[in-house]
């Protein structure tokens, strides 16, 4: 692999919100980020290390052809967030929805759905594998996550992207049943990691996570957070909800759910 010796700061200053940002290989850049390196080296991330050793850290998930798209794709987990706020967003065709990007960034951002649709997009046909034992192949279209993170400008202390969702999968008094997820910056800048607004050529349905969901194709179904509201850049995961980086992780599943 040819490695360009950009420092992250030069990378962020040098790139703009446009096609040029896409051509920069985020992983090459992150290769030289010591903080990311220390996350990879930490003993608790053995699966992640094993997968990356065997397949290379920017290996792609398999992509399929149009004819292989599954005729039906299950809706799993939340099928419609049960809140007045979400109902109001649906009512208005998500015109009032905004994706916030904040936390450890230089320039907090807010994107409408229309904003996201004007950015460069990626379409990929991939297999979704749920830990419960079912799979389905779908076509996803969306904005590379790395592009919007670059727009926001990551501070050197940012190690993880934390995804806040609109739904509470479990109703609790303290709100601890809210769905959330997180990934590290290597997955965040992986070329197949996208914020998807379309599935099989149509706007996402409510069941599949409208208006926006994460696709992080090297990992299991529960990482594919639906109903995205906010992406927060954080240095560690311990302070959020159960402290394990995700709704299912707080209930015993692996944080790095490699497939
Ligand atoms: N916000 C949110 N995201 C979620 C879930 C959920 O309940 N809420 N379920 C997860 C699980 S376990 C799976 S398998 C997939 C299901 O996505 P689908 O409904 O589009 O099949 O979404 C994942 N993302
Ligand atoms: Mo799942």
TrEMBL record:
Residues 95-235 form the Oxidoreductase molybdopterin-binding domain. Pfam families: Oxidored_molyb (PF00174). This is Molybdopterin-binding protein.
């Amino acid at each position: 692999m040819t490695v360009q010796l950009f420092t992250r700061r030069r990378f962020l200053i040098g790139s703009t919100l446009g096609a040029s940002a896409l051509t920069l290989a985020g992983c090459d850049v992150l290769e030289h980020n010591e903080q990311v390196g220390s996350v990879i080296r930490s003993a608790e991330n053995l699966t992640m290390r094993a997968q990356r050793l065997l397949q290379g850290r920017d290996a792609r998930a398999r992509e399929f052809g149009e004819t292989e798209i599954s005729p039906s794709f299950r809706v799993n987990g939340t099928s419609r967030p049960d809140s007045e706020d979400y109902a109001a967003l649906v009512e208005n065709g998500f015109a009032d929805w905004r994706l916030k990007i904040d936390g450890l960034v230089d320039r907090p951002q807010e994107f409408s759905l229309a904003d996201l649709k004007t950015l460069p997009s990626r379409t990929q046909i991939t297999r979704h594998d749920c830990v419960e034992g079912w799979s389905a192949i779908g076509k996803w279209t969306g904005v590379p996550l790395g592009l919007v993170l670059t727009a926001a400008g990551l501070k050197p202390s940012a190690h993880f992207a934390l995804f806040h969702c609109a739904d509470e999968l479990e109703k609790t008094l303290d709100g601890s049943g809210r769905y959330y997820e997180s990934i590290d910056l290597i997955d965040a800048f992986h070329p197949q990691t996208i914020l998807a607004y379309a599935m099989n050529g149509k706007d996402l349905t409510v069941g599949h996570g409208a208006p926006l969901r994460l696709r992080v194709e090297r990992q299991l179904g529960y990482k594919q957070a639906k109903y995205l509201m906010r992406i927060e850049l954080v240095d560690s995961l311990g302070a959020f909800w159960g402290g394990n980086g995700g709704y299912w992780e707080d209930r015993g599943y692996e944080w790095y759910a490699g497939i």
